[in-house]
Amino acid sequence: MPLSDSEVRSLEAGDKRKVVSAGDSLYIVVYPRQRGGGKYFVGRMRHPPGAGAKQVEVQIGPYGKGVGKWSLKKARDEWDRIRTWSRDTGNDPRDLKKSKKQQVEKKSQGPTFQQLVDAYLAWGSTKQPKPMKPRTVQDYRNKLVNQMMPELGADTPVKQLSWDATGKDGRNGREVVLAAKQKITLRGKGSQSDKCLAVLKSCFDYGVSMGWMERNQNPAVPDRTTRAAPPSKSNPSLEWDQLPKFFEDLERNDANAALVVRLAVKVLVLTFLRVGSLTPARWEEFDLKKDLWTIPADRMKTGKAHQVPLTAPLKEVLKELRQLNGGNEYVFFSPRGREYQHVHKDSLNAHIKKMGYKGLTTAHGFRHLALTAGQEVLKVDHEIIQRQMAHTFGDKIRGSYDKSQMMEERRDFMVAWSDALLEQGLQA
Q1: Residue 315 contacts by C-beta under 8 Å, 6 or more apart in sequence?
Q2: N or C: which terminus of the chain has fewer CB atoms within 10 Å of its end residue's CB?
């Protein structure tokens, strides 16, 4: 029969080391008196399982009460856990103890980079007086988690990423950060790498403020030597007289795009909205009695709600979308969506490229077209167009006191814009 707890207590040390079975391959080692006479639990099993395999011994811990000591019951439970884990995973049973030890060691070194990122984003989304917008938090998460973390290591203690800290590979934190940035640059994303470094600096600044990293040890501080991006180029856009061919290609659909994507492109041209404001549109945002589409503040770059007058051609496109997706929450609902239930914002640019317009225009390029053609072709004042584009107009003082929406003028412009697009070949 297996030993009872009272029998374990009664075991006495002698002149020699004793090994007593506690059942199920768990043993109690009783050390000799000259070595203190302590009692220690160990487990023994063959690994890998099977005849002829080597027997390994797993250290569990000393018998007794208090921190770091094990009762008979707890030792049996622990041994059962270790054996089960080894059999299920096929790993050496001693590895579980090693893994636990490494986790303790990492914990003693302070928060990991993953913990810093999570804390920073949580703080950013609630900080006062100006919390980050949800889309900003998502953008920062992408830069930190998807682009920087694979190189820096989620489990790397923050202190090991300090400027002067030296890792196992002999590089200091600054070298690790710049190497991660360089990988993004070499993919042809110099501007993106600069943005990632800026977000990373802000994240480490938060770590400094929390006491997780020493001052003056932020490894992501940018300087002239770290800048990789050349001056940014504006998005290409079509000329007014190129629109008939574009609309013809859109209708012919040689790129074989889904109907919802082609309709989204039409709405894009009619409204010249940013794709991030357009593609998540919900039906509840449309007021057909007032002929207005109100886009919530959290989808606008300005952080303010924006209104788009509904013209007759735009309502025709929406009518077709209602027949297609009227039973869904999203106007541009897509059953293929993995990340969202609606068409991804990148889908519009992807379709425009497949149509053969790579280098000629982008989705954002229609904003340039509206501002240019609106003035040159339709002879509309640039202020009216820019207000419809939700640009911040004028200086800060004017912006604080001028609450005019110029809605009548904007509606007239949108009607003229829609009519002009129909004349250029848009089918709505």
Answers
A1: 288, 291
A2: N
Each residue's pLDDT tens digit, 214-230: 888 999 998 887 877 55
Length of the chain: 428
Other CB atoms within 10 Å distance of the CB of residue 81 = 11
The helix/strand/coil state of 232 is coil
Looking at residue 122, its amino acid is: A
Mapping DSSP to helix (H, G, I), strand (E, B) and coil, where does residue 336 land?
coil
Give me the mean pLDDT over the 96-124 stretch: 75
Question: Closest Cα to residue 249, out of 266, 267, 272?
Answer: 266
Structure tokens that stand for 179 in this block: 């190497």
This model's pTM is above 0.70: no
Q: What angle do CA 124, 127, 129 make, to 5 degrees?
A: 135
pLDDT confidence of residue 229: 55
**pLDDT at position 165 over 90:** no
Identify whether the C-beta of residue 301 lies closer than 8 Å to the C-beta of residue 390.
yes
- Domain boundaries, given as residue ranges, for the chain: 5-108, 113-209, 240-423
CATH number of this structure's domain 5-108: 3.30.160.390
Question: Mean pLDDT score of the chain, rounded to an integer?
Answer: 87
CATH number for the region 240-423 comes to 1.10.443.10
Cα–Cα distance measured from residue 239 to residue 360, given in angstroms and rounded to the nearest whole number: 9
User: Any idea what DSSP says for residue 34?
Assistant: G
Q: Residue 105's pLDDT band (boundaries 50, 70, 90)? A: very low
